[in-house]
Amino acid sequence: MSLETASARPAAATLKPPRRVKLAYSLGGAADAVFTTATGFIFFYYTAVLGLSGSLVGAALFVGLCADAAVDPFIGSWSDNLQSRFGRRAPLMFAGAPLTALGLGLLFSPPEGLPEILLFAWLTVASVAVRAFISVFWVPFLALGAEMADGYVERSSIVAWRVVVGIITSILITALAYSVFFAGEGGLQSPDRYPGFGWSVAALLLVAMTLCCLGVYRFAAGLPRVKSVDVSMARRLPGEVAEIMRNRSFRILFFSAVIFYAAVGANGTLNTHSQIFVWKLRPEMMQFVGYAYLAGILAGIPVTPQLTRRLEKRTVVLAGLGLVLASWIVLPLIWVSGLYRPEGAEATIALAINSAMAGVGVGFAMIAYPSMMADAADEHEFLFHRRREGLYFAGLGFAAKAASGVGVLAAGLALDALRFPRDAGRAVGIELPADVLTRLLLAWGPGSALVALVAMALFAPYAVGRLRHEAITAEIRERRQAEGGIADT
After folding, report:
1. Global pTM?
2. Which domains does the chain have, with CATH numbers?
């Protein structure tokens, strides 16, 4: 049956979770915010505070992210085909919660006095472990979000709930870090403050993940069933991966995400270095830059569903990425040109405005992009008569993690290449040479932006718009009704 014929027929009732389930689901976004905000301190901790070379830290984190990315397809396929009375996703989410908390605490707690090679080994093993553990929770969590609703706009609403709760959590963790654990001049450069911070956020993460699982597992158990698969994962996974790669929409989303996350990884990794050594911010100032970024995201989130009602999601994402790129280019180039070089409180204001603009753009993309991936998964079912949400979001996770790993590795190599002093973090108030600061800023901003421009070019041809998705959804509903509500997988 053609898409035009399907779209002309009356649509069945759409799948839509109750508000309490949305709220419980959004706590998974809170857990991710705890993890992401906390691990954002790791690169600075191991390089500037513990004195490990940027190349070794970048390599360790790169290995961790790539190992994480490698297991994502297995976890995605596992959750797609899991049979249990709690549904496909919840059992894995329950298992991932305590393991992630344990790994996060250990990441911040290396034994004192380790020689460089053993410190590198600790960081590598801890990074691999915690990244693999969070994938056990995160991949089925994202896939569950995609199958909780089938409406073009309702999916954006589910993502918005998750992102808003995540942003609020990020604000709380940022305040906890800069106002409690690392407060005062040189607070970020004190090694004895990091283990307490790590175990505290690990406990918060465990609570958020557990509450999320308890709140969604009943709803997840009632979602459309899947047919049993008797083929082992080792035999079926290569064919499943090849199958999703046959969908042009998935390829566009996947490869554009790979390139963009590489840029994000490089930019974010050098963020703390630039704020401390170029802009001369103290920890209590740095938190306001973070708040401005999060406020920008919060401002962008409620606008995004309105924009997606009037514009295609692709257009919304491109607009958001454009704002991010502008924030990476304009202020650094002004500093490099010598026209404006603020420090301290003055720099805090300039960076806050810059970060707020980036946040609005990220808010657009954070809502629209995962929703587009869910739409592409529907297109996959239409084309291949199989549900692959787990693998689709595993692919998105693979892109984010592997590419971010490349970005972190590039940032670590860049620190060594620009001869950034290893002991700079332990010398409070140190003044670095102007040429070192210039290269640091160029790598942090414009260099990352050039890579992101390639991602935007790859993303532009995406073509699952509103009309095509509505037609696809109508056809899928008719198929499910004819098959008695059992979906292929």
Report:
1. 0.67
2. 11-225+233-482 (1.20.1250.20)
